[in-house]
Amino acid sequence: MLLVVIGPAAAAAVVTVVVVVVVVVVVVVVVVVVVVVVVVVVVVVVVVVVEVMVVVIEVMGAKACMPK
Question: By CB neighbour count within 10 A (0-12 exposed, 13-18 middle, 19+ buried), where does 11 fall?
Fold first, then answer.
């Protein structure tokens, strides 16, 4: 239907534009997903490191408070 209304060259141009737009949208979505995953991983690593440090400090503090 599109081909009949606007001609083959214009139809090819429209199809090309649609394909380019779809590819750009897919790339943007993939980049956003990767960024979100990286941020989540960094946050999890920071939380784990902080928790481990807190436990180590608590254990060291408990050892320091123990009678010798």
Answer: middle
